[in-house]
C-alpha cells in the first residue's frame, strides 16, 4: 500500500482556488522532491496534508496508509505519523522547549495507545539527538524557538522529526535562510532519518538542497498542479533552464 | 424625573441589610465598649451607603446590587459535622511545612490548625481574642480601614473572627503562614473575617491565604479583609488563592503599609467563586521600598472577578510593578482597575503596570481601567494593556505536533499566566499557584 496518495486535490483559500487537481503518490522508503516557483502552492499542499485550518478542500482526496486523512484532526494526523517541518516555525514564548517536546511526544504516544516515555529515557534521547544536530542544551531550556536564529529553528524542526519518528516527513523550504554549513548539518540530520519504512517529501525552490538530500523522484509544481515528474536529473535540468518553461505548460 | 430617580436610590440603599442585624448577631460579635461603638458607626456608614452599585465610580463594573442583591445572614459557628466537611476540603489545599490557621465559616478552628513551636519570633492570636481583650492600640488598628467604602464598613461592623499575626523585629520566618478560609456549606450564609499581620523591622515572612468551600458549599458569601504593616527593612511575600465554590461570593479588602526599605511581593489568583472583588490599598510610606503586585484571573461560566488596586506612592525612591493576566472563557468577566498616585514628594518613583487579557470565547469580557495620577516630575511610570485571543498559528503548530486542541490551549494558557506566576519569589508558592492554574485547566477539558 502507498503511504500517501493525493488524488486530484482541489483546494480553495478565501474563495480562490490554489490547488487545481494535484496528484502525488509516495511509497515507504522514497524521497520525493517538490520544486516550483514561489506561489505555486507548495506550502498550501503541505498545510492541507498537515491539517491546517483555513483551507477548503473542494475536490479530490488524501489517503494516508489507506485512511482518509482529511477526516482527521491535525493531532490525529501527527499521531498517525505525519510530520511537517514548517517553512516558518513559530516562536512560543513561555513554553520551554523540553516541556513542549515531552508533552508532544507523550500526546502522540497516548493517542496511539502506547505508554508514556519515562523521563530519563526521554532526556537521554533528546540529548543525543540534540548533540548530533549541534543543538546546545541551553536552547532546550528556552521557550520554543524564542530567540533562535533561522538555522536554529530549522534544526529544532529536525530534532522533533528525529524524536517523533514519523513515517511521513514533509520538509517545507528547509534550506531557506541557511548558510552552507547550517544546511549541511540539517541535511545530515535528515539523511540520518532515511529508512525503508519512512518517506520524505522535500519541498524546495532551489536545486541546491537536493545536492545534500538526494531524492528518488522530482516533481515540478506550477500554478497549483504537478506539471512534470521525473528522477533526480529533473532537478538539474531545472537548475539549467529555470521554471519559465513550466509556467507556460500550467 | 431626577427627583424620582434619587428617591428610588435612597429607598434601595436602606433595604440591603436589616438594621437590626447587629442586635441579632450581637452575642456572636466580639468586643464591648469602644469596639461596640466602632461597630455601630461602621454599620451606620454601611447603611447610609447601601450595597455598592455601578454609579459608584470604584464599583462601576461590579454592581453588587445586581450581582449579589443582598447580604446573607451571619453563618452559625461550625459544629462537629461542619468541621468534618471542612477537614475533607482542606486536604487538597494544605501546604506541606506551612503553619496553618483555619477559619471555618468565619470562626477559628483550632482542631484543623497547625501552629506548634511558634517560639518568640511570631505571635498568633485570633481576632476574637484581640477584640475581647486586646490592647486598645491594636484594636484601633483593626478598625483603621475607613468606612467610606460600603463593603469595608460592613466588614468592620460584622467581623467575627480572624487571625492577628505579629512577627518580631529581625525575625526570619521561613515557614509560610497559611490562613485557610473554608465554607462548610451547612446553609447559605455570610462569614465576616478580618486578619492583621505586622512584620517587625528587618523581619521577613510569607503569608498565604486560601479560600475554599467544602463539597456541598454553594452560594455562600465571604466578606474578608486584611491589614498589613511591613516595618522598615522588612519583607512580606503574600499569595492569595481564591478557589471558592463557583456559586460563592468573595468580597475582600486589604490595606497595606510599607515602611522604609521594605519589600512587598504579592500575588493573587482567582479560579473560584461566582463573583469576587479584591480591593487593595497599598501605601508606600517609607523611602527605598518596593512593591510587586501581580495577579491572574482564570474564569469561565458566568464568573465575575474584579481586582481593584490603589497604589499610593507618598515618598521618594520607591518602585512598584503590577503584572496582571486574565484568561476568560464562556461568559467570564474580569475587571482590573489599577490606580497609581505619585504624590509631589515621591521623586524617583518607578511605577509600572501591565495587564493582558486572553479571551477564549466571544462572550467573555475584560475591562481594564488604568489610572495614573502623577504629581512629581522626576519619575518613570507607565502602563500598558492588551486583549486578544489565542494565536491560531501557535495552536496549529502545537496540534501538528500531536497535542489535542484542549491540551494545546492549556499549554499556551499556562505560558500566558506564567508571566505573572513567575513573579512569585518563593519557589514553593510559585508551584502552588501553578498547580491551582493547572486544576482550572484540567476542569475545563
Ligand atoms: N492564507 C492565504 N490567503 C490567501 N491567499 C493565500 C493564502 N495562502 C496562500 N495563498 C496564495 O496561494 C498561492 C500559493 O501559495 P503557497 O502555497 O504559499 O506557495 P509556495 O509555497 O509554493 O510559495 C499564492 O498565490 C498565495 O498568495
Ligand atoms: Mg512556501
Write the layout of secondary structure elements.
The complex is a heterodimer of chains A (250) and B (445).
Chain A: E1 4-13, E2 16-26, E3 31-35, H1 42-50, E4 56-64, E5 67-68, H2 74-80, E6 82-85, E7 92-96, H3 97-111, H4 119-132, H5 137-141, E8 143-144, H6 150-164, E9 168-172, H7 180-192, E10 199-204, E11 217-222, E12 225-230, H8 233-241, H9 244-249
Helix pairs in contact in A: 2-3, 4-6, 6-7
Chain B: H1 2-14, H2 21-25, H3 34-49, H4 64-67, H5 80-90, E1 99-104, E2 107-108, E3 122-126, H6 127-133, H7 136-142, H8 150-158, E4 163-167, E5 177-183, E6 190-199, E7 204-213, E8 221-230, E9 235-243, E10 249-258, E11 263-270, E12 275-284, E13 290-299, E14 304-313, E15 319-328, E16 333-342, E17 350-359, E18 365-374, E19 380-388, H9 392-400, H10 405-421, H11 427-444
Parallel strand pairs in B: 1-5, 4-6, 5-7, 6-8, 7-9, 8-10, 9-11, 10-12, 11-13, 12-14, 13-15, 14-16, 15-17, 16-18, 17-19
Antiparallel strand pairs in B: 1-2, 3-4
The complex binds adenosine-5'-diphosphate and magnesium ion.
Largest sheet of chain B: 10 strands, mixed
Shape of chain A: globular
As a whole number of angstroms, the C-alpha radius of gyration of chain A is 18 Å
Order of secondary-structure elements of chain B:
HHHHHEEEHHHEEEEEEEEEEEEEEEEHHH
Oligomer: heterodimer
Core attributes:
heterodimer, A: 250 residues, alpha/beta, Rossmann fold, six-stranded mixed beta sheet, four-stranded antiparallel beta sheet, 9 helices, 37% helix, B: 445 residues, ten-stranded mixed beta sheet, nine-stranded mixed beta sheet, 26% helix, 36% strand, disordered N terminus, binds adenosine-5'-diphosphate, binds magnesium ion
Description:
The complex is a heterodimer of chains A (250) and B (445). Chain A is of the alpha/beta class and 250 residues long. Chain A has one domain: 3-Layer(aba) Sandwich (Rossmann fold). Chain A has nine helices and twelve strands. Chain A has helices spanning 42-50, 74-80, 97-111, 119-132, 137-141, 150-164, 180-192, 233-241, 244-249, and strands spanning 4-13, 16-26, 31-35, 56-64, 67-68, 82-85, 92-96, 143-144, 168-172, 199-204, 217-222, 225-230. Chain A has a six-stranded mixed beta sheet with strand order 6-9-10-3-11-12, with helices on both faces. A four-stranded antiparallel beta sheet of chain A has the order 2-1-4-5, covered by helices on one side. The mean pLDDT of chain A is 93. Chain B has 445 residues and is of the alpha/beta class. In chain B, 26% of the residues lie in helices and 36% in strands. Chain B contains eleven helices and 19 strands. A ten-stranded mixed beta sheet of chain B has the order 2-1-5-7-9-11-13-15-17-19. In chain B, strands 3-4-6-8-10-12-14-16-18 form a nine-stranded mixed beta sheet. In chain B, helix 9 crosses helix 10 (405-421) and helix 10 packs antiparallel against helix 11 (427-444). Residues 1-16 of chain B have low confidence and may be disordered. Chain A binds chain B through residues 50-53, 73-75, 77-79, 84, 86, 89-90, 92-95, 99-100, 103-105, 107-108, 111, 143, 160, 164, and chain B through 391-394, 396-405, 407-408, 411-412, 414-416, 418-419. The complex binds adenosine-5'-diphosphate and magnesium ion. Residues 13-14, 18, 36, 38-44, 54 of chain A line the site of adenosine-5'-diphosphate (ADP). Adenosine-5'-diphosphate is lined by residues 13-14, 18, 36, 38-44, 54 of chain A.
